[in-house]
Amino acid sequence: MANTFELIASSTVGSGGAANIEFTSIPSTYTDLLVDISVRTSQANNSRTLYLRVNGSSTSWTQRSIYGTGSAAGSDSTTGYGSTFLYCGECNGSTSTSNTFTNTQVYATNYAGSTNKSFSVESAQENNATGAFLTMMAGLWSNTSAITSILIAPDAGSFVQYSTAYLYGVKNA
User: Assign residue 88 a region: left if phi > 0, alpha if psi is -120 to 50, beta otherwise?
Assistant: First the structure.
């Protein structure tokens, strides 16, 4: 069967910036969810951790990632990020190449079902320098509640103007 993607909601950060981007009241009428993210932070650093939480939960997260930095490669697990959020890669900071944004996709399967929720993340930090992160990650939220809200935030600073996030519902049809 073909997958059908339907836009549920979108958010574009205005001139004042935003501490986070949040989608609430997510309907349970789809099979899966896709969050398409393009962000940059105000923090004076080349990269900041980008994270995601669902339903306000800061517990029961586990994850495993592989990454490249432009000069090295590696892997990490929950112990590197803690178990309080879903790690979504590194986000461009204010010292990254001007006007470049990190692009990330988060896919959540069976988000409305009564089983634990699994996620996959692909993230590419844009930077015209040797230091830029590319991350692929698999994560699990060990909770059987349906996902009704998603919060996306950097670990420091705020999202700058023109940062965007789009939430899609996926149906098998």
Answer: alpha
**Distance separating alpha carbons of residues 92 and 89, to the nearest angstrom:** 10
User: Beta strands of 40-127 (E only): which ranges?
Assistant: 47-54, 61-68, 73-77, 86-92, 102-108, 117-124
Query: How far is the C-alpha of 76 from the C-alpha of 151, rounded, in Å?
Result: 23
CA distance 162 to 173: 33
pLDDT in tens, 108-132: 999 999 999 999 999 998 887 767 8
Q: What is the pTM of this model?
A: 0.93
Burial class (CB in 10 A: 0-12, 13-18, 19+), 169: buried
CA distance 61 to 87: 9
User: What is the residue-wise DSSP string for 16-36?
Assistant: T-BS-EEE-S--S-SSEEEEE
